[in-house]
């Protein structure tokens, strides 16, 4: 006999997320009525259904409840951490979302779960969102500063032109001299404002050593092979699963022979913090 949870799973697979959400809720209510322990998977599955329905606040609550019922440090809670990360990022809680995603990523690697690749891509998106938030704040502050400078220049221009007219009226400056002075004052004012507002134009380029030669994306968890070449972990693991060979030397290679490239990982992290656009490079 199918349980409410099983029926919810069937509706979810059919893309009927609202019906799945309702059935998971029924499963939860049934466990309360029967005074049995609520299955953490009910909250976990309902969290995903609610993510599909863009109900991120309730999805967050469900993911947290699943983690509360499970030991959040055990690998079995990997999906709950990932769903919590998704719901948090959608609510623009970027820092906590990134932290939860990194926990889920480490668990997925430990479990050798195929979702590690998806979580890896999510981490890059979260880092991009983190950079974007900082960049928006920076540009807002810069815009405010530029507006203040331009206002100051406008007022200075008005003062200088008024002084110039006063000299003409006093007879200390002729019409020709006035026109020359006016031209100079306006040119200086425009030059000052232009130099302040001019954006910095530079080519956006990711250093080659930060790019994975398998996926051609910026790395965030690089590992080094015995041959000395570094690759993004999930991309290389996927390659090894398919071929079992070192991409460079074509010699047999196993996961146990890989080591984290800590220096390169730190370099990638620093670069992404300052250049979130590179995720879409």
From TrEMBL:
Stated name of the protein: E3 ubiquitin-protein ligase CHIP
PROSITE patterns tied to this protein: U_BOX (PS51698)
Ranges where the U-box domain occurs: 205-278
Keyword Isomerase on entry: yes
GO molecular function: peptidyl-prolyl cis-trans isomerase activity; protein-folding chaperone binding; ubiquitin protein ligase activity
SUPFAM superfamilies linked: RING/U-box (SSF57850), TPR-like (SSF48452)
Gene3D superfamilies linked to this entry: Tetratricopeptide repeat domain (1.25.40.10), Zinc/RING finger domain, C3HC4 (zinc finger) (3.30.40.10)
GO cellular component, one term: cytoplasm
InterPro entries for the chain: CHIP_RING-Ubox, TPR-like_helical_dom_sf, TPR_rpt, Ubox_domain, Znf_RING/FYVE/PHD
PANTHER family to which the protein is assigned, alphabetical: E3 UBIQUITIN-PROTEIN LIGASE CHIP
EC assignment: 2.3.2.27, 5.2.1.8
UniProt-listed GO biological process terms: cellular response to misfolded protein; positive regulation of proteolysis; proteasome-mediated ubiquitin-dependent protein catabolic process; protein polyubiquitination; protein quality control for misfolded or incompletely synthesized proteins
Protein's organism: Cyphellophora attinorum
Chain spans, region Disordered: 174-202
Catalysed reactions, as listed in the record: S-ubiquitinyl-[E2 ubiquitin-conjugating enzyme]-L-cysteine + [acceptor protein]-L-lysine = [E2 ubiquitin-conjugating enzyme]-L-cysteine + N(6)-ubiquitinyl-[acceptor protein]-L-lysine
Assigned keywords, A-Z: Isomerase, Repeat, Rotamase, TPR repeat, Transferase, Ubl conjugation pathway
Ion transport among keywords: no
